[in-house]
Amino acid sequence: MVSTSKRAPHLPDARSGTTTLQTHAGASITGITPLQVVKIFPNETGFMFFDVLFRSYRSSIVYTKLPTRFPQRGFGFYTNAHYRTISSKMQVNYLDKADVETFTLPGAQVYEHYFDLPLVHNNASKDKRRIKVFCRQLVPIEKVNERKTLPFFLYLQGGPGFPCSLPKISGWIKVAFDHGYQVLLLDGRGTGLSSPITVESLDSFSDQEKADYLKYFRADSIVRDVEAIRSQLTLNRDPKHESKITLLGQSFGGFCITTYLSLFPDSVKAAYITGGVPPLVNSPDRVYEKTFARILKRNDIYYEKYPSDVKRVQDIIKYLNKDAVKLPDGGTLSSRRFLQLGLAFGGSGGYDSVHEVVVHAAQDLDMLGKLSFTTLSSVQKMQDFDSNVIYAILHEAIYCQGAASKWSAERIRMSDKFQPAFDWSGGSRVNFTGETIHPFMFDDYSQLAHLKKAAHILAEYENWDKLYDVEQLRRNAVPVAGVSYFEDMYVDVDLSIETANTVKGFQSWITNEFAHNGLREDPERVLGYLIKLSRGDHGSNR
């Protein structure tokens, strides 16, 4: 490649109109204007093409030789028409885009990418709807010049319905950096900055249209987004540099990884799952049968730790059953909604957080005869279904393959086995619920109420696509390691072990050292151990 800042004699002045441009190859291009000139230059493995808007041809100009397969060869310039013909045959690597916002964090340069992707990947030729998917690229600050060649390590967030938070260059990200990776943090479709699903974004849709649209926000669609992003970021990458992606998934992120291993195993270098080895089921019923059994054990632990809360919770439930209480955001604090605070029992400090709310609520009733704004705000802050509506409306659908959920959790709660334990009259010890979704939520939560009819449509929908290819998982060749927790309230360890035994080569770590959020509690230990496990440095306890 030759660069010159001299004005070439055959170039028109920037102030002139259209002219005939004589190329170095001897061909003439007529009707060209300065603002139609394009620059053509090579990258490592091919050629890139960009529009160049010259204010003056006295600017530095780069000449490059064209590939022989194009009709005009040699050194020269081409009009936009030629550019469109050429660019239809050659694509631009996403990392060469000039309009990417970037900033620096201690230890890393961050690049913020928006990918234009099909809403429906497997029918994109007919369904032209598009979404924007947001992804942050984190490059070790000392390796910024290597960002086009470093291997990618992509994190899939728990949920469904939650985005990645603004990163800190510590914890598992530091572990990934230390192992030679750059990191990708994805806001899964419908979350964060990725065409977020909100009541407002669905406002113009009919109830049926809302339901039909939401069908495309499960793991199979998220995985196809990631594969499209991987393909764009590694386009034309030199074969000596890794084009496969390494995956880390927490909770629901592990569900997505298992789908990825089913659909695109040849694109994955290695995979690590923390607290999220999914059950290979077709409907959620078996999942919730185990969930309610675990929830009852958590209630036992809670009331053993705080025995005085038995009476406090009874009094609170009786009060809420008697009077309709409005929350600051307009939602209703019913007794059944209050008992959903038990969702916190599965995380570190969850028992204590619920106890604090119970104590303050009981004191309010003793002193005021009603719940204070402060207490109501505390309850509201602990429940994020309204701000993350996918978490509620698709929670049961993440298990469905060719079967309807039919409000699985509610049916299991009302079964002969569990109904006596979850009697919410307030007469006996009142048990909290956990990570379960119920029809009443679409009455009691202010934002979910707008999606009530769509939620019922989805609960009856049977034609869900396949999420897992069990035969592919049985012949898996990708190094994969996962940690499952004996005391995990959200993901049943027995079902996880069944899946681990199905996936060929799966290296399991089963422990009671953490609850569900071991990756957050001790990221260096958890991810570091899984990496060693996948490489055979430690024995699996599967």
TrEMBL record:
* InterPro entries cross-referenced by the UniProt entry: AB_hydrolase_1, AB_hydrolase_fold, Peptidase_S33, Serine_prot/Carboxylest_S33
| Location of the AB hydrolase-1 domain | 153-312
UniProt signal peptide: none
Which keywords does this chain's UniProt record carry?
Answer: Hydrolase
Gene Ontology BP, a term: proteolysis
Does this UniProt record's set of keywords contain Transferase?
Answer: no
Which Gene Ontology MF annotations are present?
Answer: peptidase activity
Region annotation Disordered: where it falls in the sequence: 1-20
Record's family? Belongs to the peptidase S33 family.
The record ties this protein, via PANTHER family, to: 2-SUCCINYL-6-HYDROXY-2,4-CYCLOHEXADIENE-1-CARBOXYLATE SYNTHASE (PTHR43248), PROLYL AMINOPEPTIDASE (PTHR43248:SF2)
Name of the molecule in the record: AB hydrolase-1 domain-containing protein
Q: Which organism is it from?
A: Mortierella isabellina
